[in-house]
Amino acid sequence: MPTPLSPTKLFVCSGCGAALPVEAEQVGRKCRCGRCGKIVTVPGHPVDESEPAQESPQRVSFSCRVCDTRLTALAADQGKKAKCPDCGTLTVVPPPPEARPPEVPGAMHGRQYGLWDVDGAPSPADLAAQQPKFFPVYCTVCDTLMYATARQVGAKLTCPDCGAKTVVKRPPVERPVESALVPDGEEYQLDQAAVPGPRPVPAALKKLEAEQEQEKTSDGKGKKTEKPSPHQRPKCPKAPLLQGVWPMLWRSPLGAWWGGLSLVMAMELWLILNAVSGGWGSGGWGKEQAIVLVSYAASLVLGLLWLIAASAIWLAVLTESSEGNDRLHHPPGAVFLDWTGDFLYVVTAGMAGLAPWWVVSRFLGNLPLEQRGGLLAGGWLLCFPVLLLSSLESGSPVGLFSVRLFSSLVRRPGQWLLFYLETALLAGGCVLAAVAMNSLSPWLSLLAIPLGVAASLLYFRLLGRLAWWLAESLPMVDEN
């Protein structure tokens, strides 16, 4: 009985029934079965029933020889001429292409993949041991990563990128990975009779304690007191309006601001005098009238810019003084638009403090102009500090009424009285100094400008110290 053939180019061993591969050049030869060891003869050419019989094509496709239009004709019309439907050219029908044998993948030859039995599969460690081991090799020219086996040690590998030859060196010996587990019997043992020692102190903590010890200074009585931290709020003295007022005024950058504001104010005064001294004349519009108009416009613009810049430095001095600082740590920034918020606080409080007294002065129209001006100035000096501190506490230029600030007029009258006394002395001293300088020489009256700017900085310094005094003396109010 002939040996049956498999449709996948395998034949079956007659001894054990194992499927053995067959190749065309092995037909008629003897081979040994890899399973039972029996010597069998390789039968004739196997028949691959999965491959269908090749049929000759009935149609043939070709291209027009002029316009390359794809044409199709019957294979029986070989040698005849077919007309192109696009250009009308006659093209000879070629013979059909020769039938090519089907291309069988290489995986279909030789031994095929199979499945292990349930208990016949090797362990993953055995499979990994059977796989060839590769180790990396880098090209000596372009540093391309390649891989080699132990058999290629000493040979040369050709780089696939640059084509350079690289000698394969022996890889370093891999050290066995030590287990992190402690063997049995070698575990750490605690001595129950041992006394625990002192807890170790980290080096960073020792350094921090040493720095804190160095920051401490002696108070002269053998005791050590800690220096106040730069981020800690200073301690309020007994009378902030009399103690520590001057240090901020002598320190940078208030000197630069004082000089700049004084210079701009001098320019403003010159423009105003230039506008007042000019006249419109009787001849209508002329050169003098144009100069007067330009002087008025320039004085208004320059005066507005001066007031915006002055408001920024005034509130900066007030805010830093209310926190107990003796230096201007946060002066106004370089962005001019940021100063407009401070300008709104000052202008709103100033106009609100002047409005009621202006109404009162209107009813007292029979008073002389000097008395009415003194009434306006005195009423403004009384109302302006209360309204400005109220708006700053509420955080809005229009929040001019603060219960806590207005109640401090009754609860802390001595502090307010001292502030008003100092501001009255400051204003009176500036007026007397200006009158005295003007009487001596008209040129000396120009010194009234820097004197007035310095008085304004001192005024807001006193107002900030008053706010600090009130904040430290008044109890906190529960907002809820």
SS-based structural class?
alpha+beta
Residue share in helices? 40-55%
What count of helical segments does DSSP give? 10
Radius of gyration in whole Å, from Cα? 53 Å
Strand content is 5-15%
Biggest sheet, in brief? 3 strands, antiparallel
- Low-pLDDT residue intervals, each spanning 5 or more residues: 1-7, 46-50, 218-222, 280-284
Whole-number average pLDDT? 80
Oligomer category: single chain
SSE order = EEEEEEEEEHEEEEHEEHHHHHHHH
DSSP, total strands: 15
Structure described in brief:
This protein is of the alpha+beta class. It has helices spanning 124-130, 203-215, 247-250, 254-277, 287-322, 340-363, 369-394, 403-411, 413-440, 448-473, and strands at 5-6, 10-12, 19-21, 30-32, 39-41, 59-63, 70-74, 81-83, 90-92, 135-138, 145-148, 156-158, 165-167, 216-218, 224-226.
